[in-house]
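Email to the structure team, subject: Protein ARV model.

Hi all, the expression group asked for a predicted structure before they design truncation constructs. Nothing fancy, just the tokens so they can compare against earlier work. One-line instruction: predict Protein ARV, return tokens.
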Amino acid sequence: GAEARPSEALRGQAMAAPGAYRCIECHGEATELYRDYQRGVLRISICKSCQKPVDKYVEYDPVIILINAILCKAQAYRHILFNTKINIHGKLCIFCLLCEAYLRWLQLQDSSQNIDPDDLIRYAKEWDFYRMFGIASLEQTSFLVGIFIALWQMRPEMLKTKSDFILLLKALLLSSYGKLLLIPAVIWEHDYTPLCLMLIKVFVLTSNSQAIRVTLNLNRTLPWLAIFIGLVLENAVVCLFQKMGWNV
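Reply from the structure team: attached below.
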């Protein structure tokens, strides 16, 4: 009785679905991240492929993990995407779109030369914000569609099932967290604001590239090519809006 309990606890930890986790070093499949020997004793599992710890980040503070993710380390991305149960991609996407819409709305108000107070009614301003949110959403959608089309054409075997598409979509949405920096960049308005906005754009694209690379286990070239196709489609949508006479 008493001797069987530890083994039962270990068996419960070990019997995860095959491939439920990923080694953050080699991308190999793993059934467990660690074993709990009870009384606070944990042992990190060793990857059968590379003989390194499957996920060293299970012992790390979340702040350290975030810093490593900001530095675009592949190991941190694998930990977040495969070995955690983060499910904020939808809310994060909406919040990022709101940030982008707010930025464009402010720029639209600044560019308006009409000082007639009758034209600055609250309803008109509110409609402009909703319009900017819709435009930002369509541009984001076209960017993602361009990436999926490019990857589907280059590596169709990588996106076989619906779960593959969903995982990549989640990775792309989570890796766009850099857009949250748009708000402080606007609030702390400075002569270098355009440069800051450009750097934020580069950071987001770099994060997207790393997310594609980690999720599909690709080299560095294909993710950037897919992002380029996504940008082309996004800019095509922008040009379409401009031809319609909309300020974007």
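Residues 87-244 form one domain. Confidence is low (pLDDT under 50) at residues 1-16. Ping us if the truncation boundaries need rechecking.
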